[in-house]
């Protein structure tokens, strides 16, 4: 991909039902000069435009949806694509972003969903609202960064800065004139919509001298709970209420007080925050379910190809997988088109429903013969209306890591999380079947597990992947194919011309 050829896909996660108001947006994607290089922007903005709608509205975006070669082929240079969908049942904050290579490093923006007309927030109305979009910045072209890592088989370079609403903040030498300022008056309660758009980092968030009340995550209201720190994996959103102190922190020196943040690897702080998130009301979950699935998620290594020099351990290149299957994106045809056309040479629907080999997943000495996954474009089929129950088990192959697992096209309930190897004999007793959190990303703990449950009620081909982009680049992904139902709104529309 040269500097003039950019493939763009924007990931927008909604479901189609009846409409109320229709909102039209044109997204112009182009290279924009910034400092010493160019970045890819939408309408010349970084971050991109904020979209505001109400629950029940219809959104029409000229340039839109889908991970490349899964739900559609990428939009070619000079081309466009119009996607139309209705937002139904989602309330709070989501975001839109590119889903081709590492374009989402700069191609993203907030999507705010207000209650329907006549409805209100399930919490006191804030004085004002503001998005807080957390991101990363590379001094190099992010596409060059990932291409170099792919060429050498090693990990990509880290970003050069973190950003808030596109600006790097006071702690970087380059940014004294570019700090984001969000006004707040003493005693005033505001609603902040926090979004982690970072490519490869879970982020802790704190406000010096204050506590925050969480009221929504991933466009779903939660039981309010107060916390001094937030933890967001890439792609996650958290809505908070924040009340400014009558006397602002800083004292007579005039210097701002710095917030107290956990260490970047503070697993306890991350776990404690996740445990506080609960659905606003009681939910009804079927038990038993129609599909009981178990997926290992983790890293691996592949042999270096003949004639190449690779930078991974012992001359290998890094890989990642689910149930030992390392996902390879097609390059000529989308999986959805291949599935609807009955083609059998683009993907297979035979990913194992459980690990092909059982082992001590989080043990210190995983056998080396388990370090090398099989490559392919793999997924599995789910019947429309079936309830799926999935155990996501982290592994200690190469190294244990937190994996924010995201499912396109569906929200899911997080029943439980834990450490070590999931044990159905004892861990089922920990399932929250009353008010589990409803999300579209679950952060599988380091050397731990998470259990999710959802209804397959959105027909199509949906990517399930780690939202650390370095891991999806290495193959930590698969596709779930939800078959058509019977009624009109339970089936995919035929493809356009």
From TrEMBL:
PROSITE patterns, A to Z: MULTICOPPER_OXIDASE1, MULTICOPPER_OXIDASE2
Domain Plastocyanin-like: 35-116, 130-244, 351-484
Major place of residence: secreted
Superkingdom of origin organism: Eukaryota
Entry EC no(s): 1.10.3.2
GO CC field: apoplast
UniProt keyword terms in alphabetical order: Apoplast, Copper, Lignin degradation, Metal-binding, Oxidoreductase, Repeat, Secreted, Signal
Record Pfam families: Cu-oxidase (PF00394), Cu-oxidase_2 (PF07731), Cu-oxidase_3 (PF07732)
InterPro entries, per database record: Cu-oxidase-like_N, Cu-oxidase_2nd, Cu-oxidase_C, Cu-oxidase_fam, Cu_oxidase_CS, Cu_oxidase_Cu_BS, Cupredoxin, CuRO_2_LCC
GO MF: copper ion binding; hydroquinone:oxygen oxidoreductase activity
Coiled-coil ranges (or none): none
Catalytic activity, reaction form: 4 hydroquinone + O2 = 4 benzosemiquinone + 2 H2O
Signal peptide location: 1-20
Cofactor: Cu cation
UniProt-listed GO biological process terms: lignin catabolic process
Gene3D superfamilies tied to this protein: Cupredoxins - blue copper proteins
Compartments (UniProt record): Secreted, Extracellular space, Apoplast
Family per similarity comment: Belongs to the multicopper oxidase family.
PANTHER family: LACCASE-5, MULTI-COPPER OXIDASE
Physiological role: Lignin degradation and detoxification of lignin-derived products.
Protein name as catalogued: laccase
Organism of origin: Acorus calamus (Sweet flag)
């Amino acid at each position: 991909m040269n500097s003039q050829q950019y493939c763009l896909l924007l990931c927008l996660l909604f479901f189609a039902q009846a409409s109320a108001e229709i909102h039209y947006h044109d997204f112009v994607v182009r290279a924009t000069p910034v400092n010493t290089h160019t970045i890819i922007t939408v309408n010349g903005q970084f971050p991109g435009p904020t979209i505001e709608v109400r629950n029940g509205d219809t959104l029409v975006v000229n340039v839109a949806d889908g991970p490349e070669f899964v739900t559609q082929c990428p939009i070619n240079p000079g081309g466009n694509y119009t996607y139309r969908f209705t937002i139904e049942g989602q309330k709070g904050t989501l975001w839109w972003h590119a889903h081709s290579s590492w374009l989402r490093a700069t191609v993203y923006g907030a999507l705010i969903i207000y209650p329907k007309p006549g409805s209100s927030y399930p919490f006191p109305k804030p004085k004002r609202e503001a998005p807080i979009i957390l991101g990363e910045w590379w001094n190099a072209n992010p596409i060059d960064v990932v291409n170099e890592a792919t060429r050498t088989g090693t990990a990509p370079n880290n970003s050069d800065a973190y950003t808030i609403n596109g600006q790097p903040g006071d702690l970087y030498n380059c940014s004294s004139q570019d700090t984001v300022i969000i006004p707040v008056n003493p005693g005033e309660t505001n609603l902040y919509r926090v979004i982690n758009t970072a490519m490869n980092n879970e982020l802790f968030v704190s406000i010096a001298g204050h506590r925050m009340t969480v009221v929504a995550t991933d466009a779903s209201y939660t039981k309010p709970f107060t916390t001094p720190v937030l933890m967001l994996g890439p792609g996650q959103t958290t809505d908070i209420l924040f009340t400014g102190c009558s006397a602002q922190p800083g004292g007579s020196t005039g210097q701002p007080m710095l917030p107290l943040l956990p260490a970047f690897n503070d697993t306890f702080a991350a776990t404690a925050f996740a445990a506080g998130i609960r659905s606003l009301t009681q939910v009804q979950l079927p038990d038993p379910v129609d599909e009981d699935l178990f997926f290992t998620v983790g890293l691996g290594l592949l042999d270096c190809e003949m004639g190449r020099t690779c930078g991974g351990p012992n001359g290998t290149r890094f890989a990642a997988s689910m149930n030992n299957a390392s996902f390879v994106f097609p390059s000529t045809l989308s999986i959805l088109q291949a599935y609807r056309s009955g083609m059998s040479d683009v993907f297979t629907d035979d990913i194992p429903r459980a690990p092909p080999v059982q082992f001590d997943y989080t043990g210190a000495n995983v056998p080396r013969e388990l370090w090398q996954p099989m490559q392919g474009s793999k997924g599995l089929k789910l019947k429309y209306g079936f309830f799926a129950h999935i155990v996501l088990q982290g592994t200690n192959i190469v190294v244990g890591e937190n994996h924010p697992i995201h499912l396109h096209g569906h929200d899911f309930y997080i029943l439980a999380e834990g450490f070590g190897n999931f044990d159905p004999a004892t861990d089922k007793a920990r399932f929250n079947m009353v008010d589990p959190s409803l999300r579209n990303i679950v952060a599988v703990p380091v050397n731990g597990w998470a259990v999710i449950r959802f209804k397959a009620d959105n027909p199509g081909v949906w990517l399930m992947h780690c939202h650390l982009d370095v891991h999806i680049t290495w193959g930590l992904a698969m596709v779930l194919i939800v078959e058509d139902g019977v009624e009109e709104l339970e089936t995919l529309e035929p493809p356009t011309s």
